Structure to design on (1722 residues):
């Protein structure tokens, strides 16, 4: 295999005037509108664009797996090796799928069949159009799993999807998509839900495999860092239409369409904030530096949220009497404070306990230690007693789709907190909901739609609107902007900061995107295996990372610069450790030492 | 006669066979099965209700009618090969009257001397039964008993071998050993029983079949289908009401049906201990209100109207008695006389199996016509019987499905438990709680007439007793059910044995298979 | 797993004790007098009293129960009042037939119900779908007696494919199983349809298509196992429902099962049989539920036994 | 996009009824239900004959019932009563049993199943073991005891049905709720401060509607027939009161000679259950927005 792409003059796939429509109560709505592009053998085409612009719909149209009966390809042509994909019958489509076009879907968590073993799902894909013996197929499956860098591959074959971490599942999906050696791999946001370290591994893996097999890749992403790292050509979409198409260098260096320019401007880059104390948009409050301001505030009012020795352990029960047999040490002895108007970011790899910390603050799970909100201890409070506290603390959940009741109209969902707390009704309620919709960049005429009618990013904004509706004092934002395209992400981040400036709201910002964290945070806490390894102000962490783990996180961030040398695939990538321990386990607490100016670092 | 022995037949039943112990078995189904496995001293001529000798070769009755001496047939063998002797007869009677046996028929032997001591447990053997020699047995009674020969013909008096009873204990009923024409071959619980010919049967020439298979658990409607296909020879439960007309009007079926009388009366009881049925006028009004013809029509004419307790084939039946005519106006007037011109409300209990609830509804409508609002309580048999035995419950009961079928063809059997004072107790079967002391004395007197020569006199005595009962009207007799037996073409024998009054559904010993002739 | 089963069995034992107590109380409250029942219509008062003595019916309630419970612990279910046979023997002779019939019925239900539900879900909204769903209503509403006799008429009498009732061979089993299974098939078809429709919308179905699998593979290997779960949960429940249907079906087909035994016993208030059958069927139901709970995680590995 | 109304989340969707009326099959179902209810309520005014009157000319001379004819549209029954009148009156009993008693049992079952599925620990264990107990409970026996002790009445059958019929639905809903309770949106509701009652009724219940519809509508048919069995054992309506179930039950052995006596009431039961099913199905689709396609 050579490292240069051998591109024949004939395009492998050429799409012409693709129009895809979805049915809505108000009639058909065009979500992909006259899209055309060519894909050459072995090249990577990235489709970027704002959330809801029709990226996923394009991908699903190409493989003819649009959600039935709501969506359909209304017109257009997709010539693949001279055949029109849209004209194929069932049998033709079956032959096309998997063998010629493989797909990795946007929702990795639900895309594997929960009741079949990994091995079976792989073998099935391998043998779908290539007869071979079971033993051969198993051997091939093992080889594929090893290729996508899953540790202990032989054992994984007999495991079920839910027994694997999110990152592993994503890699299994990739293995399935690659199993038949397709000519084209369509990857729809393959890394959105993953933390940077895993993301880096997967991206380099795709690139590595592409080199080996000469596969053409259509990569859908909103992350310009990923685009820069992966693409040969880029297609930028907006409102279902292509706004720009070009090589990756052209797009990054001389973007033509204003939308593309806007998109690129919005991209946060790591290190962009070097030497600045306050978050990006924070108005320099008077002459006082922000950190001093918050410290002053903290001193006068006391911290808004004060956490001491927070520990969360989940019992794993067993035996006749259902007694605990082992425990998940999800969070171990965390202590931190959040002051009024401050943003504390929580970063760390998948499964390190970030979401769990957030849920403990909401009293959604049992925990020990002490949490005070505005000075009031929440330990042991019942649901009723928590209610007034929840007016002040709200959470935006990690998975926006799952956290919205699919049976409710989004308008009602956003209104619900106000109704529960009896804060508004009638036209006042309606006004307030419309205001919130506008505030998060949604149009109020979407109020009567249901969650499934929105794209991933739009749902995330609905969740944010919901959390904002109560005007809380603290919002726990769990991966709240991860699914948003950069322009909207920038808008939402701006929004969050504007609200902070106006109302002095505090954020506990959970994210894996270090660039975003750099922009928004006052302080950052780096978490590993349920404990902090490094805590400090944004500048301390980003400009002077001391712990090896912090550095590892920073180095894994994709850089939106196509000229940068693409990272090589690291075959020896580290696996996530299990936080499950036997019953009597005594955790070893990290000793955090203050290396000056409240920059706490654990001994490595 | 030239009828060849051999062949077999299949009989089906819906219900499982409960027990074949003659001291215990007391339902219409095992009654005749027991009769073909065991013998008693007396029996009836096939197809009739005429007494004849069976294991007894001869008998004498003392003049005072209190001593009966039976000479036993010699050489009669149990199925286990041992010869039956007078000791066995005595043992069998001791056993049936011993309370530990829990025999429902112990009461039939109440006239034998020493019965009371057996009943209260103070004696282990009946004083009045003596073995004179191995082939002679003597019974002494406390009072003359005209029914005693009948008693010697009912199953409870049948002879059982001591060694087998002791061997099987409580399970004797599942492993019956007697002297009868058949012996039990196999018994698969819940599925079937096979009776095989007793080759050593003392009465040579009987039985005529080699084998009878009883298949249990068969829905009557299905049994009929199988009979049509030739898989079944006798539908033990008879023709189901739902199929009766269909079968009767179908020429291929019609010739397979044998019709006969039955010692049965269907009646409505009125609890004389409860208001307003304590008033004889009310009871008479009910008698006049019921349109019996219509009720018989509802059951497709499978009965004849009844106006007195005794069925027509029973000695003592009053042919010329007219009874209470169907007369709505007259009934209303009687009610008015009783001060109930506006009628009253009451309850009518009924056994919940077709066609009984339908009959009850017809009665209900008839009663409504004279202003009596009867609410129907349709319940499981056991619950109806339980309520009937209480002095203050079940003011009216339609007796259908539980009604009195005689244990033996004698009028006295229609009196004691169901119309006499002894039955008018808690848990008794006299559901009217009717107790007339004067009649009680006349009944005892009638039963003391033991001289066969005075048979007519005794019949007359009973006839007048039942007519006097009708004056008090504790019952409203409605009809006497007719029997309709359906059997396959293969079976032969006189019609009478297919509607034998004491063998239901048929007389198993007498029937023969045409296909072996 | 083992410990879970052990714990559930322990709970089941408690349930059975509860059931035995409740049944005993109910039967005790019943106005029918067992001694009278045994004694029959011609019995004298003495006979009745002596029977009462022998059966311990004049003891206080709790003593009667203790007596019965002690017997139970020794495997003694008592002796039928009217059949005069050991209840254990009666039940043992009939239980295999009933279990066989239930197994046959469950098989019919599953095959019919799943097939109908599947076709309906795949052809959702079509005439076939509507027809099948109507059929499932007919199945649920039709009296089993009528279904049974009709089947006998058509398949045995007219076509001669199967024997007219009876017990023994596979041919005997077919019609009764179908008759008993029709009701459940109706339920299963509806359950199956609704859960299949849900499953067909799931992301992993899309994944399966994207692999280039055939339609049949996607439906049977991917959709079916996910959709069948609520149906499996129902099998345990079904055993309870069978207890009523089995009475009719057994008598129509002359099937020597416990349904007939139970029905006769109820009609005649034969208390030891009622007790015995109740306990055995309670055991069957409890075991059925337990099995459903144990099968569920085999089909869906996410389900944890707790 | 004219009216952008924010409905306070009282019901998940506004104008459910209006949307129901847009579906042909649902409208058909509603009409059938309305007709049956109408017949039941106004039975005395619309029946051609007194339902309890045994006509002399209602039976042949042999005592056979009459097939449908000009005088008796649905024929007569085994004692010569007009079947049409009995079916109309029978709707009263059958509606009470099939709709009200069955409804109550669905309610109880839902309450138990949802509660046991939502709460963990002893609440769940106690409720589910109680459900197991009830499932194994000899209901027929209870019926017989009640029959012997109390005066039989519709109320008692209704109570018995409500008491024993809830277990199945409880068990099925329990399993479903268990998985629903783990879903993120439920946690999100809790985080908003929504009370348990609100979560159970507004957010869990709507997701169970499809299962409940299946059970509730099939339950109509089974309870109507169950009523007949229970009445037969003496606890329910007693003759001559008619119910669809007992008309079938009494006459089922006659179905070859008098098929109208079984098939007409059978058809009535299917019609009632089907009508509710059509409405229920439509309701389910309306409440589940993900089910909506091209309409
Ligand atoms: N079932 C539906 N009914 C109505 N509109 C829908 C439906 N599904 C998707 N849409 C709309 O189609 C448009 C395109 O959706 P698509 O999922 O392709 O967006 P996307 O570009 O992939 O966005 P994201 O980056 O957020 O995933 C969105 O505006 C969305 O609201
Ligand atoms: N309810 C629970 N029961 C048992 N274990 C749990 C539970 N919730 C979380 N855990 C475990 O606790 C650990 C921390 O989980 P958490 O969801 O807090 O991770 P996270 O840091 O938010 O990861 P991600 O970035 O993937 O969202 C994980 O190992 C997880 O498996
Ligand atoms: Mg998308
Ligand atoms: Mg998380």
């Amino acid at each position: 295999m050579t490292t240069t792409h051998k591109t024949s003059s004939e395009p492998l796939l050429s799409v012409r005037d693709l129009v895809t429509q979805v049915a809505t109560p108000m009639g058909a709505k065009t979500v992909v509108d006259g899209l055309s592009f060519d894909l050459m053998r072995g090249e990577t085409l990235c489709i970027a664009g704002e959330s809801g612009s029709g990226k996923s719909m394009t991908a699903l149209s190409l493989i003819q797996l649009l959600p039935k009966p709501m969506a359909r390809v209304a017109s257009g042509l997709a010539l693949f090796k001279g055949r029109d994909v849209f004209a194929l019958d069932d049998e033709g489509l079956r032959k096309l799928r998997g063998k010629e076009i493989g797909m990795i879907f946007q929702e990795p968590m639900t895309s594997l069949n929960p009741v079949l073993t990994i091995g079976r799902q792989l073998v099935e894909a391998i043998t779908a159009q290539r007869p071979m013996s079971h033993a051969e197929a198993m051997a091939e499956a093992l080889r594929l799993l090893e290729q996508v860098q899953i540790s202990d591959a032989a054992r994984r074959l007999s495991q079920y999807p839910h027994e694997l971490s999110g990152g592993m599942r994503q890699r299994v999906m990739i293995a399935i998509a690659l199993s038949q050696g397709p000519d084209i791999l369509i990857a729809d946001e393959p890394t959105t839900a993953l933390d940077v370290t895993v993301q880096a591994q997967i991206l380099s893996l795709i690139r590595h495999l592409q080199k080996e097999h000469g596969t053409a890749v259509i990569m859908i992403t909103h992350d310009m860092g990923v685009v820069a790292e992966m693409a040969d050509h880029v297609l930028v979409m907006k409102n279902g239409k292509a706004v720009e198409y070009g090589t990756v260098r052209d797009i990054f260096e001389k973007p033509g369409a204003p939308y593309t320019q806007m998109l690129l401007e919005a991209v946060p880059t790591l290190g962009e904030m070097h030497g600045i104390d306050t978050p990006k948009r924070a108005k320099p409050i008077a002459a006082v530096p922000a950190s001093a301001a918050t410290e002053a505030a903290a001193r006068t009012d006391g911290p808004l949220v004060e956490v001491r020795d927070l520990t969360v352990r989940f019992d794993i029960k067993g035996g006749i009497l259902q007694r605990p047999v082992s425990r998940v040490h999800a969070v171990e002895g965390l202590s931190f404070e959040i002051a009024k108007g401050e943003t504390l970011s929580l970063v760390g790899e998948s499964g390190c306990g970030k979401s769990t910390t957030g849920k403990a603050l909401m009293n959604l799970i049992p925990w020990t230690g002490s949490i005070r909100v505005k000075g009031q201890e929440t330990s042991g409070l019942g649901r009723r007693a928590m209610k007034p506290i929840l007016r002040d603390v709200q959470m935006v959940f990690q998975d926006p789709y799952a956290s919205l009741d699919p049976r409710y109209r989004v308008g009602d969902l956003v209104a619900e907190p106000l109704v529960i707390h009896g804060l508004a009704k009638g036209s006042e309620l309606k006004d307030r909901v419309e205001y919130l919709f506008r505030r998060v960049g949604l149009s109020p005429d979407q109020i009567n739609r249901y969650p499934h009618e929105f794209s991933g990013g739009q749902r995330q904004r609905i969740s944010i609107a919901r959390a904002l509706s109560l005007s809380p004092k603290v919002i726990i934002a769990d991966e709240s902007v991860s699914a948003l395209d950069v322009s909207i992400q920038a808008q939402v981040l701006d929004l969050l900061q504007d609200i902070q400036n106006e109302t002095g709201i505090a954020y506990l910002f959970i994210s894996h995107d270090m660039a975003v964290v750099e922009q928004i945070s006052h302080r950052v806490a780096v978490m590993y295996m349920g404990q902090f390894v490094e805590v400090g102000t944004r500048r301390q962490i980003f400009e002077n990372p001391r712990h090896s783990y912090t550095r590892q996180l920073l180095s894994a961030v994709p850089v939106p610069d196509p000229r940068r040398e693409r990272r090589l695939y690291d075959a020896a990538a580290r696996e996530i450790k299990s936080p499950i321990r036997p019953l009597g386990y005594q955790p070893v607490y990290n000793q955090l030492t203050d290396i000056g100016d409240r920059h706490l670092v654990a001994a490595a | 006669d030239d009828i060849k022995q051999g062949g077999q037949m299949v009989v089906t039943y819906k219900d499982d066979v409960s027990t074949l112990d003659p001291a215990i078995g007391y339902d219409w189904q095992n009654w005749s099965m027991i009769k073909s496995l065991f013998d008693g001293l007396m029996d009836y001529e096939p197809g009739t209700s005429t007494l004849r000798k069976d294991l007894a070769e001869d008998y004498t009755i003392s003049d005072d009618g209190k001593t009966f001496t039976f000479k036993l047939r010699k050489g009669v063998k149990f199925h286990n090969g041992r010869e039956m002797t007078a000791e066995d007869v005595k043992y069998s009677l001791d056993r049936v009257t011993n309370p530990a046996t829990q025999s429902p028929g112990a009461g039939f032997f109440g006239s034998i001397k020493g019965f009371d001591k057996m009943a209260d447990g103070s004696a282990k053997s009946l004083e009045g039964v003596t073995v004179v020699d191995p082939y002679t047995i003597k019974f002494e009674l406390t009072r003359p008993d005209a029914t005693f020969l009948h008693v010697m013909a009912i199953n409870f008096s049948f002879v059982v071998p001591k060694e087998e009873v002791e061997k099987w204990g409580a399970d004797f009923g599942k492993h019956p050993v007697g002297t009868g024409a058949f012996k039990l071959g196999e018994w698969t619980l819940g599925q079937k029983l096979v009776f095989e010919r007793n080759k050593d049967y003392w009465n040579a020439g009987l039985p005529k079949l080699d084998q009878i298979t009883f298949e249990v658990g068969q829905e009557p409607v299905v049994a009929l289908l199988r009979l049509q296909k030739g898989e079944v020879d006798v539908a033990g439960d008879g023709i189901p009401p739902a199929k009766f007309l269909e079968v009767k009007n179908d020429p291929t079926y019609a010739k397979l049906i044998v019709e006969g009388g039955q010692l049965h009366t269907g009646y409505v009881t009125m609890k004389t201990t409860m208001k307003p049925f304590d008033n004889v006028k009310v009871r008479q009004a009910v008698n006049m209100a019921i349109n019996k013809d219509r009720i018989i029509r509802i059951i497709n004419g499978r009965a004849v109207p009844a106006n007195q307790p005794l069925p027509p084939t029973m000695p003592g039946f009053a042919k010329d008695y007219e009874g209470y005519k169907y007369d709505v106006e007259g009934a209303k007037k009687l009610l008015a006389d009783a001060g109930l011109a506006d009628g009253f409300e009451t309850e009518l209990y009924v056994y919940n199996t077709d066609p009984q609830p339908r009959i009850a509804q017809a009665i209900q409508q008839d009663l409504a016509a004279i202003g009596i609002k009867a609410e129907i309580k349709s319940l499981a048999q056991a619950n109806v019987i339980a309520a009937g035995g209480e002095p203050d419950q079940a003011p009216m009961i339609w007796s259908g499905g539980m009604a009195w079928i005689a244990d033996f063809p004698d009028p006295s059997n229609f009196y004691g438990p169901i119309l006499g004072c002894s039955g008018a107790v808690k848990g008794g079967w006299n559901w009217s709680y009717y107790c007339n002391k004067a009649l009680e004395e006349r009944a005892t007197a009638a039963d003391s007439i033991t001289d066969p020569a005075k048979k007519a006199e005794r019949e007359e005595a009973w006839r007048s007793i039942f007519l006097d009962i009708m004056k008090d009207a504790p019952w409203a007799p409605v009809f006497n059910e007719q029997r309709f037996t359906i059997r396959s073409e293969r079976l032969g024998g006189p019609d009478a044995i297919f509607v034998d009054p004491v063998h239901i559904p048929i007389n198993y010993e007498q029937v023969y298979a045409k296909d072996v002739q | 797993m083992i410990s879970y089963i052990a714990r559930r069995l322990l709970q089941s034992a408690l349930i059975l004790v509860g059931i035995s107590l409740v049944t005993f109380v109910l039967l005790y409250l019943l106005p029918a007098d067992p001694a009278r029942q045994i004694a029959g219509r011609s019995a004298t008062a003495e006979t009745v009293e002596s029977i009462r003595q022998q059966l311990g019916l004049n003891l206080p309630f709790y003593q009667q129960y203790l007596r019965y419970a002690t017997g139970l612990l020794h495997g003694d279910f008592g002796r039928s009042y009217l059949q005069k046979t050991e209840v254990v023997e009666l039940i043992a002779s009939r239980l295999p037939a009933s279990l066989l019939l239930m197994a046959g019925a469950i098989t019919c239900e599953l095959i019919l119900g799943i097939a109908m539900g599947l076709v309906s879900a795949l052809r959702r909204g079509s005439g076939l779908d509507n027809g099948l769903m109507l059929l499932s209503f007919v199945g649920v509403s039709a009296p089993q007696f009528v279904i049974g006799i009709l089947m006998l008429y058509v398949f045995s009498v007219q076509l001669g494919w199967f024997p007219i009732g009876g017990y023994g061979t596979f041919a005997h089993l077919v019609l009764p199983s179908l008759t008993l299974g029709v009701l459940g098939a109706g339920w299963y078809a509806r359950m199956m349809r609704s859960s299949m429709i849900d499953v067909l919308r799931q992301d992993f179905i899309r994944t399966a298509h994207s692999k280039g699998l055939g339609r049949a593979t996607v439906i049977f290997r991917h959709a079916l196992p996910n959709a069948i779960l609520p149906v499996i949960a129902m099998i345990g429940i079904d055993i309870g429902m069978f207890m009523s249907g089995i009475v009719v079906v057994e008598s129509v087909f002359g099937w020597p099962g416990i349904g007939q035994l139970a029905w006769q016993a109820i009609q005649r208030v034969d208390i030891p049989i009622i007790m015995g059958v109740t306990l055995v069927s309670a055991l069957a139901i409890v075991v059925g539920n337990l099995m459903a709970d144990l099968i569920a995680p085999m089909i869906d590995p996410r389900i944890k036994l707790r | 996009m004219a009216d952008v109304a924010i409905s306070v989340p009282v019901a998940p969707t506004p104008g459910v009824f209006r949307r129901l009326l847009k579906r042909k099959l649902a409208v058909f179902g509603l009409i059938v239900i309305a007709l049956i209810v109408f017949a039941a309520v106004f039975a005395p005014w619309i029946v051609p004959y007194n339902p309890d009157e045994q006509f002399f000319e209602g039976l042949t001379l042999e005592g056979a019932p009459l097939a449908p004819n000009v005088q008796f549209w649905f024929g007569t029954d085994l004692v010569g009563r007009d079947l049409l009148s009995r079916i109309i009156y029978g709707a009263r009993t059958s509606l009470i049993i099939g709709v009200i008693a069955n409804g109550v049992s669905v309610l109880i079952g839902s309450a138990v199943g949802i509660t046991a599925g939502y709460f963990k620990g002893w609440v769940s264990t106690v409720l589910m073991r109680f459900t197991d107990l009830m499932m194994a409970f000899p209901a027929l026996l209870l019926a017989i005891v009640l029959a012997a002790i109390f005066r039989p009445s519709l109320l008692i059958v209704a109570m018995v049905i409500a008491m024993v019929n809830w277990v199945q639905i409880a068990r099925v809903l329990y399993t479903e709720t268990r998985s629903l309770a783990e879903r993120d949106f439920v946690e999100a509701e809790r985080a908003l401060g929504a009370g348990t009652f609100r979560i159970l009724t507004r957010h869990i219940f709507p997701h169970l509607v499809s299962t409940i519809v299946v059970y509730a509508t099939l339950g109509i048919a089974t309870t109507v027939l169950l009523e007949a069995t229970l009445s037969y054992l003496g606890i329910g309506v007693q003759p001559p009161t008619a119910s669809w179930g007992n008309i079938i039950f009494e006459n089922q052995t006659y179905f070859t000679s008098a098929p109208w006596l079984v098939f007409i009431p059978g058809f009535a039961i299917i019609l009632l259950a089907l009508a509710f099913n059509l409405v229920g199905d439509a309701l389910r689709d309306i409440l589940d927005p993900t089910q909506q396609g091209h309409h």
Notes: Residues 84 and 478 of chain B are 45 Å apart (CA to CA).
